[in-house]
């Protein structure tokens, strides 16, 4: 009985800590939503209000039409979508080579790939810009997307996942005359859908909230993404907090909907990938 009581108390404390942590994470977003529905003068009242006295949903319409946010959203969708496709394909192909193919220096090449993770992204910013500038890719989709098509992190995760897949199906496919490309496309990839979905989701979220590279690689409003548009909006309406909060909520909403829609695949993929990495 004492053990059960201790276990019950420990479980209750654990649940309370999880709830407290969840509220801590959600509180800034709820604060942002509340402020986005307030009048401009209401934000600066003292004592501060938690909820608006009278909601002002027109703040969202005004904020969305103040700048060409429709174009910003389109650019972000094209940018993030193309990068997701590129990273999934390149990461899967490279991971299959490192996990299944045997060639001289494979482990050393893989370690060289991993060493890139230790290089800060800011260090590569100027070389990347000089490359796309020399190729005439500044302020274009090609220049914005091309340097983001390979993810070392994605290669590592998929390699670890591929190592856990049984080789029996591959051996059976080889006995039927299948080549490496057929095995990769028709055997490995169908078995790796949870891992691929997880990588795709993380890649989309990472590119959607990307700010520094799109800021450097674009020049005009027609090529700027949502995060850069938010920075421009802050410069234009730095005293109007409800407008700024409304614009920020609008930019965050697609990510929230995506995460809720893909929650089952995300949690399952993370669990599988964590087991794969620990085994590797």
| Helix proportion range | over 70%
CATH superfamily: MetI-like
Q: Beta fraction of the residues?
A: under 5%
CATH architecture heading? Orthogonal Bundle
In DSSP terms (H or I, runs of 4 or more residues), the helix count works out at 14
- What fold name goes in the CATH topology slot? MetI-like fold
The separation of the N and C termini measures 41 Å
What structural class is derived from the secondary structure elements? mainly alpha
Unreliable residue runs:
none
H/E series: HHHHHHHHHHHHHH
How many E strands? 0
> What would you report as the Rg, rounded to the nearest angstrom?
24 Å
Largest sheet: none
CATH class: Mainly Alpha
Shape call: globular
Number of domains: 1
Mean pLDDT: 86
Write a compact overview of the structure shown:
This protein is an all-alpha fold. Helices cover 73% and strands 0% of the residues.
Write a structural description.
The two termini are 41 Å apart. This protein has 14 helices and no strands. Helix 2 crosses helix 13 and helix 3 packs antiparallel against helix 12. With 280 residues, the chain is mainly alpha-helical. It is globular, with a radius of gyration of 24 Å. The mean pLDDT is 86. It has one domain: MetI-like (MetI-like fold).
List its traits:
280 residues; 0% strand; single chain; 73% helix; mainly alpha; MetI-like fold
Secondary structure topology:
Elements: H1 2-36, H2 58-66, H3 69-100, H4 106-115, H5 125-134, H6 141-146, H7 152-163, H8 168-175, H9 180-191, H10 193-208, H11 212-217, H12 226-236, H13 241-261, H14 263-279
